[in-house]
Design brief:
- This protein has one domain.
- It is 13% helix and 36% strand.
- It is mainly beta.
- Strands 3-2-1-4 form a 4-stranded antiparallel sheet, with no helix packed on it.
Length: 76
Amino acid sequence: MTDQNLKNEAQAEGTDTPTNSPDWIVKAARGHYKNSHLERIGAAWNRDDGGIGVRLHGKQLVDGDVYLYPNEPASS
């Protein structure tokens, strides 16, 4: 889900920001070696039991490593 999609969801709910912003951004490597880049493929949230819940966008096939990055709040 893109940042724009999150904003659209928040507007539909009547708020300025989503009420459950992800704690982590999920990214996967695309390409090989020098031509590789990280693509955002989902989001993740910390769970009360100490785990992390991951939600991938769409139905893509992940055939390599997945990386979690902290979701830094946007600076104003």
